[in-house]
Amino acid sequence: MEYSDRISLKPETLLGLQTSYRFNSAFSATVQGIVRTQRSADQDLINWAYFSYQPGDNLQLKVGRLQTPFFALSDVLDVGYAYPWISAPQQIYKSWLFPTYHGVDLAWGHASDNIDASIETYLGHYSGTHDTNFGTTEFDVKVFGGLIAHLNIDDLTLRMSHHHGQVNLNKAELNQLQAALENGGYTKTAKALGQKHWIDLEEVAITYETIDYFLRAEWSMINPRQGYLIKDIHSYYLSAGYNIHPLTFYTTFAQSHVRYQSYANEVPISDSELYQAVSTLKSRTQDNLTTWTFGTRWDVHPQIALKAEVTLLDGKPEENAFFDSIQNDFSRNANLYKISLEWVF
C-alpha cells in the first residue's frame, strides 16, 4: 500500500500538467505528464499522449497512449479533486492492472433533455511488470480490448464494462521449472504453469448524486483463465456522503476477495528439488482485505479542496492484505490517517 507507521508526503503527492492543441474544429492533440514523489514501475512520466478526431458532438476517435478505461474513475484517478475521497478505494483501483496502453479508442454518445447514453470500445497493447507469487515478472499484453456502456438519467449514472486480453508472462525461472517438470514426467503440473493465457475483467458501477448527498458503488471481477500464477480477484465498494456546503462528510465500505486456482500435486517428496520449487509456488500470498473509511472534504475555493480521512484496515492473519512489509507479529489490522490539499489550476 506504500504507507508506513511514520508521517510521510511520499505515497500520493503528485503534480500533473496537461496541455492540448487544436489543429482545427475536428483534430486535436493532448499530452499529460505526472511527477510523483513515489513512482511504481508501471507509472511513466508521460501517461497521456494522443491525437483526437471529433467530427461532431456524438463521435470521438482517439489514437496514441491512452488511459485504460477499466473503472468508473480511470480517466480522473490522478485528479483527486474530481472525487470525494483522498484516494479511490484500494481494493479496486490498486489492483495489478495497467493504467495506460497504446492503441485506439472509439466512443459514440447521444444526449437528450434528461438522458445521456454512450458506447465506448478500445483496442491496444501493453508491456510491463507484475508481482506474482514467483516474484516480479515481466508480461506482455499483445492484444486486449473492451466495451463500455454509460447511461445517465437525471441524477443516476450507470456504467457496465467488459474487457478481454491475452497475457504472456516472461519469467525465465518458470520456463526452466516447466521444462524440468516435463522432463520428469509431471506433465499436469508443467501444463498448469503455462505463461500464456487470457484474462477477463467485468465491472459495474452506479452513482446517484444530488446537491445534498451521493451514493456510489462499484464491483469488479478479474478472471485469469490460467489462475495459477495470477490472482482471481473479486472486489467492490459502497460509499455514501452528505453535503453541507462547503463541507462533505462520507463513509466507504470496501472488500476484496483473492484466490488462486489449485493444480495437480503430482511431484513426490522424494524428488526434493522439484518438490521444493512447486511447494514454494503453492505458498501463494493473498490480498483479502476489508476496510471502513470515514472522511471530510472542505471546498475552500472553487478549485481548492482540503480533505481528511481515517481508514480502518482489517486483513486476515498470514495473508498480505495489501501490505508490502509485514512483521511476524503483525495482525493485519491497522488504522490509516491521511490529509490532503488538492488544487486544480
Give a quick rundown of the structure.
The chain is mostly beta strands.
Describe the structure.
This is Porin. InterPro entries: Porin_dom_sf (IPR023614). With 345 residues, the chain is mainly β. Strand 10 and strand 11 (232-244) form a beta hairpin. 10% of the residues lie in helices and 54% in strands. The two termini are 28 Å apart. The chain has one domain (14-343): Porin. A 15-stranded antiparallel beta sheet has the order 1-2-3-4-5-6-7-8-9-10-11-12-13-14-15. The model has no long low-confidence stretch (mean pLDDT 86). 26% of the residues are buried.
Rounded to the nearest angstrom, the distance between the terminal CA atoms is 28 Å
Give the number of DSSP strands: 15
- Write the H/E string, N to C: EEEEHEEEEHHEEEEHEEE
Structural class: mainly beta
Query: Judging by the overall fold, what is the CATH architecture?
Result: Beta Barrel
Largest sheet report: 15 strands, antiparallel
Radius of gyration over C-alpha positions, nearest whole angstrom: 22 Å
How many individual helices?
A: 4
CATH superfamily descriptor:
Porin
Q: Return the CATH topology.
A: Porin
Shape: globular
Low-pLDDT runs of 5+ residues are: none
In the sheet with the most strands, the strands line up as: 1-2-3-4-5-6-7-8-9-10-11-12-13-14-15
Sheet-strand content, in percent, reads over 45%
Number of structural units classed as domains: 1
The CATH class label is: Mainly Beta
Share of residues in helices? under 10%
Give the rounded overall mean pLDDT: 86
InterPro entries: Porin_dom_sf
Organism: Vibrio gazogenes DSM 21264 = NBRC 103151
Protein name: Porin
